[in-house]
Structure formats: structure tokens, C-alpha cells
Amino acid sequence: MSTPPLDELARRAREAGRVLARTPTAAKDEVLLLAASLLEDRVGELLSANGRDLDRAGDAGGAQLDRLRLTEARVVSMAGGLRQVAAQPDPVGQVVEGWVRPNGLRIHRVRVPLGVIGIIYENRPNVTSDAAGLCLKAGNAIMLRGSSGAIDSNRAVVACVRDALAKVGLPVDAVVLVEDTSHATAVKFMQLEGAIDCLIPRGGPALLDSVRRHATVPTVIDGDGNCHVYVDAAADLDMALAIVVNAKTQRPGVCNAAESLLVHRSVAADFLPRAQLALEGVELLGDPATCALLPGIGAATAEDFATEFLDLKLSVAVVGDIGEAIDHIARYGSGHSEAIVTADLAAAERFAAEVDAAAVLVNASTRFVDGGEFGFGAEIGISTQKLHARGPMGLRELTCVKQVIHGEGQVR
Amino acid sequence: MSTPPLDELARRAREAGRVLARTPTAAKDEVLLLAASLLEDRVGELLSANGRDLDRAGDAGGAQLDRLRLTEARVVSMAGGLRQVAAQPDPVGQVVEGWVRPNGLRIHRVRVPLGVIGIIYENRPNVTSDAAGLCLKAGNAIMLRGSSGAIDSNRAVVACVRDALAKVGLPVDAVVLVEDTSHATAVKFMQLEGAIDCLIPRGGPALLDSVRRHATVPTVIDGDGNCHVYVDAAADLDMALAIVVNAKTQRPGVCNAAESLLVHRSVAADFLPRAQLALEGVELLGDPATCALLPGIGAATAEDFATEFLDLKLSVAVVGDIGEAIDHIARYGSGHSEAIVTADLAAAERFAAEVDAAAVLVNASTRFVDGGEFGFGAEIGISTQKLHARGPMGLRELTCVKQVIHGEGQVR
């Protein structure tokens, strides 16, 4: 199928975005609810389109196939995601703040859509509907550049949303799928200056590196999560055990899973053997002090401490005090989510103040750093950069502010 | 003079930034007040350093020399700027919002410094003290990469701030001047990933283009201002005249000066001849309808309408209605500051809603879009991008948020 060139797609998305920006909440919600119903009505078509993608994937690895695979339950969950986004309050038009200057000028900061959001992502068809739903609700157009491996699934999902837009009388090009999945077009996509207001890459290190090197449009990086759990001298060790097990094993392949365990020297001999038992099935790699307490485990290299395993694997170190734990995290952490388990108020406050990350957790699992768990309905990613957004990104992170200034003829 | 390599400067700034991040407001304010006094005490040294820069500049253009030149009054004004920043409330530690999740987790979003700010700028020594003051107050370290043309002035200004840091017992490398002003080092500066948390370029189109092409660190673009004043059918024409004259002539070389005048057809014959008289000394370039009303002025090309003159020059067009004015701005505007003069509520509301710019003004001059005029004490730039910051950037725009999450052992 021949599709328009990228510039033309971008032009159409921008025009559609101008309409979306002034579309009332009720109409946007109607699109999301209709799209949700269409996804469910067309589950057969979606699964057969997804089957074609799976056939082409053939002998790819299990985790990759799992991310690509749609099932009836997953389609129902995608529809549910759209309904949850529809139920969220509309951020557009919110007056963030306002004040009056001594000369009588009244300044309001009003939340407005960003315009056109670009998403570049790998084989996950559910990202297609999640991202489209969030962007539309926040009044933006969206250009989706998925992977060639998921192209049939993405076409089928995008068709549902575009059909919903058409039924509500809104421009279908508010949701545009870039069907040319060549590398050259991906680079061109990252350089659509003046056309894309915000580019969000979702994928592995190679994609993020390519975006850092090539992108000339503003970006928000959804980076990796080398997350730590630090068990303090004053920790409730039962609580610590439950948190470590949950953070490591509840879903090891995601960015907010723990990759590294730090244990205060004074509780290490008591805690580590219990942790080893509770983490059965998890490969442990320890520093010398850990290896001395847990004979038989492998030795952790500096590279291991710097690695996001995304697997049932955990690096472990014993630290002399909380300062050493904070330094270790400053050296190896990726600024995603860092947890301390402690009953000591001063330790909790110091950890929260000094650890530089999107999220710092006291006595809770790192797995809670997530748009859904934060109450955002859904998320378009978890920012590990500091500009614009940090941590889980929901509807509000897909907007910016406009300053509206009212006077009665003031001049300087 | 030999200075450490860029990587080493960046390492020192990052270490200093970690200290600044937990420095109490009183100590940061003390640094700013001391630095202000040192600037005044050393005015002789500053002027002689500046004299060396001016000598080297030799036969450069007048506007460029004017930006580079320091006078006693300008040094006093730089010191005053530091005192104003010291008087501003400290954004660090502010709890932006907080809520409790159904599972009992308490989430706070707390304002924290960005870390290390990089500034790359042209021949303006006052930017050196303004930027250093704002960054320090917001708890950040700053790396200043000024131009070779202002290197002696910048060294003298930076010495005042570093001496003030030392006197208060804070690390002097919280303010670092990159003395190697080669292009290669500038590019390396834009690619200090993991070292610079936010890069803010301040300069002309060539610098901004270079940053867009080369930067791999997060950036906030302080772009150009092709600002319009639209005189509506329902405008008070006396007010319109005062606003146009102020927006164009009060300081034509700055980004929030007006570059283009749009006039509703129904008032053009009345307004334009009066505007021509009031704008004596300003070169007008008109569309055909304007030229018919103002014989003798030059014809404006599409390129003129797209140009930020930064000079006593104004493009003028007659529009059929407010929709045409909004379309003209969407086509030619740079998203900086756009003004409407009108007594019609519906026109004011439509203009404010539909014009996509950092600031939209109703019955006020575009010249008010400025950190000082907004009440921010000073500004580090005016963002024309939508991510992170939009419009005048003060202390708050030099911070980000950290999510601090408290639980009692919650797991998923």
C-alpha cells in the first residue's frame, strides 16, 4: 500500500492538531469510548492482523514474541485503557496559576495541548492505543512510528481510532501511522522540526542512543531503570524481604523492577541468607562481602552493578552505612526509582533528600512508580530525564502552558 | 592560561552541584549578596578587563559593541540583578502537590534543582552574572561557555562569584567558565551527556541551529521573536497606536519587540496613516492593501513577513477579519508573543484561545513578556519551545520535581 510522504503526513497531523486543540472534552471522550468499542468489536480482525505479524517474527525470542502478541484478553485490556483515559479529567484549559502585576496586567498560565506528539516504539501494539488515547484526550495529534514487525497489528489498531474520530466528525489525521519503517525515515521523523512538538521514544538502548544522536525536535527520554533497594540498619527485615522479592520478581522485565540490592553491614548476616531463600530462582551476583555470607553465588563486576538485567538476576552489595548506599546509587543508578527500607526517620529523610532520581520510595516497592499506580489512568512512558517531565507521564505531561495577559493599554 | 579539560570541569561542576542542592537558602543568598558587592568593589578591574575585550573587537558593528560594553552603571545594574534574585523565594523544597493512593501510599512532588546547567552565549557579560545568580539560587551548578570576544570580561565576572562562593565555604566549581572557546569544544560541550542536565543557548540563529544539530543533552531553546500586533475592528485606535509604537520602538533589538503589524480592513484607512506618522523613523514594508493606503512605502515580501528585523523596521498587512490575522500569525509567527488590541470580548477570547504562542496579550504591549516584567526578578531566557518551559524562565524553570513516596511496606 502506498502512503503519503512523511512531510505530508506531518502537515495533516498539524492541521488536525489545531482542530483537536479546541475540541471540547465531551467530543474527545466520545472518540475514546467509540474506539474502545471498535477494538472489542473487531477483535477477530485484530488477532488475525497480529497473527500475520507473529508469523513474520517466526523464530524471534520469547520475550519479544510475548510483547508483540495480542490475545482477546489483551485487546479487552487495551479497550479498558482507553475508557480509563476517557474517565480522567481533561487537563486542557486548566488555569495553573494567575497573578496581577503592579501595573495592573493580569497574567494567567493556562494549560494547552503541545500540538503534535511523535512516538517511536518497538513491537508493542498496546502502546499504539494507549499513546493515541492519551494524546487525543490531551488535545494533541499523534504520529506513531512503530516497528515493521508490528505493522499489521498497528494498522488494525489505528484504523479503530481513526474510524472513531470520523464518526465523531473530527479529523482522522489526528492519529497518523507512519507505515514506512525504514531507518532513513525514522531519522527524518526525529528531525521534523516545526512539525513535531515532542518526540517520545519507547524502546531499548539502541533506539534511545539513535534518538540522542539524530533528533533535532524536542524529546522526552523514557530511559532505563537500574533501580536499587537499600535495606538500612534500622529496617524491619520482614518488610524488607517482602519489598525486595516484590521489586525483583513481580515483573522482572519492566523498568521499575529492582536490579540491585544494597544491605547495611549490621544486618547483612541476618538478612542476606533469608533473602537468598526468598529469592529462589533469582540469580544473585555479589560483592566480596556478600559472597562471603552467601557461599556459592557469583561475583558481581562493576558492569553487573551498572546493568539493567530485566531478568531474574540481582546484583547485591553490602555497604558500611547509608552514605555508601547513596554514593553507590549516584554511581550506578539511572535516575529512575530508588527505595530504602528503614524505621529510622533521619535515614529516610536523608535518603529522600540526597538520592537523585525521578522517584524515591520509603518502605514501598519500586514497582509502584507507574502511571496507573500513581492514579494517572495510563501512562505514555516514564521519563528519566529532568526537563519537562520526570517519572510517570500522564495526560498533564502531554500539555504545556500558554501565558494569557490582559491589560487596558499598558505600555513600557 | 592553561585550564583543565572540559570533562574535568564538568566533573567538578557536578560534584559542586551535589553540594549546592542541599545548601540552605540563607547560604545561597549570602553568596549572591557577596558577589554583588564584589562586582561593585572591583568595577575598575571589570572595566579594564572589558576594555581589553573591546580593543580586540576593534571595528565590529555598533550593536555588537554595545552588547559587549560594560560601564559603571551596567556593573551596578548587574549587582542589582544579583540582589533581586537573592530576594526571590527559593523554589527548592517546595511541595508542588501531594496525594494519597487507595493503598495508603503517600506521593509528594517536591521541587529539586536540575543539577548542572550549561549556558552557551554570545558577547554579553551581563548574562554571566545573571545566569550564575539564577542557577545558584535554584541550587544548581553552572557551566558558562561564553564567546572568545568577551573572555576577559567573563573571567572577571566569574572571579567575583567564585570568590563569593569560597568566602561562604561553598565549592567554587559551582560556577565554571569554559575558557576554551573553540568550535570543537562548543560541540563537545553540547554533548556532555550525563554531565549537563539542561543546556540553554542564548544567541542568534546560527548558534541555535548548531545546538539543534549537535546537542545530545536536553536543551531549552531561547528562540527568535517574530511578534505581531493585531489591531482589531473593535480596537480603541489611540490605545492601538500607543501599543504599536511601544512594541516596535521602545527597544527594537530585543526578542519581544513587534516585527509585524496586522490591521483589520475596516479600520485600516483610519489607522494606518496615523500609525505611519507616529512611527516616524521606522521603515514600513506593506502588503498591497497597505501600500495603497500609504503610498511611498516599500512592498513586503513573504520573507519580510517571516523576518525578525531586530531593527526600526516593521512589516504591515491588512487582514479581512480576525481569522485571517490568526492564520497569518500561525504561518509567520515564531511562537513568542502575540498581541491583539480590541474592545470586543469575543475577539479577545478567540485570539487568546487560537493563537499558539508562549504569550498572548490582550490590550498590552508585547514588551511585557519578560522575566522582570512577570515579577521573576530576572530571567535566564525566554523559551520558545513547548517542552519544560515556555515564555520567560526564572528560578522555577531551573528546577525539576522528584516524587517522594512513603509507604508502610506496600508491595504489588
3D architecture notes:
- 2 copies of one chain form a homodimer.
- The first copy, chain A, is α/β, with parallel strands linked by helices.
- Chain A is built from 16 helices and 16 strands.
- Chain A folds into 2 domains: 240 residues, Aldehyde Dehydrogenase, Chain A, domain 1 (3-Layer(aba) Sandwich); 146 residues, Aldehyde Dehydrogenase, Chain A, domain 2, CATH 3.40.309.
- In chain A, the strands form 4 sheets. In chain A, strands 10-9-11-8-7-12-13 form a 7-stranded parallel beta sheet.
- In chain A, α5 runs parallel beside α6 and α6 packs parallel to α7.
- The model of chain A has no long low-confidence stretch (mean pLDDT 95).
- β13 of chain A pairs parallel with β16 of chain B.
Architecture blueprint of SSEs:
Two copies of one chain form a homodimer.
Chain A: H1 6-21, H2 25-41, H3 43-57, H4 62-68, H5 72-87, E1 95-100, E2 106-113, E3 116-121, H6 125-137, E4 141-145, H7 151-168, E5 175-177, H8 183-189, E6 198-202, H9 205-214, E7 227-231, H10 237-249, E8 258-264, H11 265-278, E9 283-286, H12 288-293, E10 298-299, H13 302-305, E11 313-319, H14 322-332, E12 337-341, H15 345-354, E13 359-364, H16 371-374, E14 381-383, E15 391-393, E16 399-410
Parallel strand pairs in A: 3-4, 3-6, 4-5, 7-8, 7-12, 8-11, 9-10, 9-11, 12-13
Antiparallel strand pairs in A: 1-2, 2-16, 14-15
Helix pairs in contact in A: 2-5, 2-7, 3-7, 5-6, 6-7, 10-11
